[in-house]
Amino acid sequence: MLETIKFDLCCAARILYRAGLSVANAGHLSITVAENKMLVNRFGPSFATLTPKDVLAVDFNGRVLEHDPSVEPYVNDTIQLHGVIHRNNPQIVAVAHTHPPAVVTWSTFRRVPEIYDQESCLLVGDIAVVEEDYSGLAATEDRVRPFADALKEHAVAILPNHGAITTGPNIQLAMFRMILLEGMCQRNISVGLASRATGFTPQPIKTEHALTAKAELASIPFLPPLWKDMLLRMQQSDPDLLALGSKPAAA
Asked: What is the pLDDT of residues 129-161, one digit of tens each?
């Protein structure tokens, strides 16, 4: 079971990399597997090369509990971000943190993006903007606690001048929300540019209509077939990971 979860975590990381949503070897994905225990990628490998041996079992204080003996089990202090979030939000199973380019650009405005398209309706009401100035790495509890508090009521948090955190009951949904958020911010930026170029006033989707669309979309079991499709694509883009032979769990 743990090996399957590790494999799914690596697949999610590779998908985020292929979507252009990771920067160098920054970012972590984490999944709680027991009380005070989470699986998380070690620091070093990027999302592009992550394999199950790079996934460690760590407690919420960042202490390594289990690791593959063939790797250096190093996690830097920014693992506090995941530990604090999981400790203060036991309802959250999976956490994704990375620095998607359009999200980082949009985060400088410190505003929740408008909803301009159908896909973005899936995030209506789910996004918080953490009202904190960037003051350094998210490596201490006092810096991370506002993120954890924001995630008590929202599935997604935008961190000004930094990146984003997305959550879910599994890593598949946390990953998908990160992809949706990047697309939403891209749309806001492109609509803003088009508005300036044309002089036209953009019209976002009304909140009540976005909520209706969200409920309607939620009735469609889109995530399992989407995950299956992504794994099929990975047979071409990431055969090294798929060749390891783990059977990914259904989303």
From this structure: 997 776 666 666 777 888 999 999 999 999 999
For 211-242, what is each residue's pLDDT tens digit?
Answer: 999 999 999 999 999 999 999 999 999 999 99
Q: Supply φ then ψ for residue 84, to 5 degrees.
A: -65, -40
The answer to whether position 131 is within a domain reads yes
Do the beta carbons of residue 184 and residue 123 sit within 8 Å?
yes
Closest CA to 96 of 86, 109, 106, 111: 86
Which residue type occupies 77? D
Which CATH number belongs to the domain containing residue 220 in this structure? 3.40.225.10
245 located within any domain: no
Q: Which domain does 234 fall in, by range?
A: 2-238
Residue 244 lies in a domain: no
The pTM for the full model equals 0.93
Q: How many domains does the chain have?
A: 1
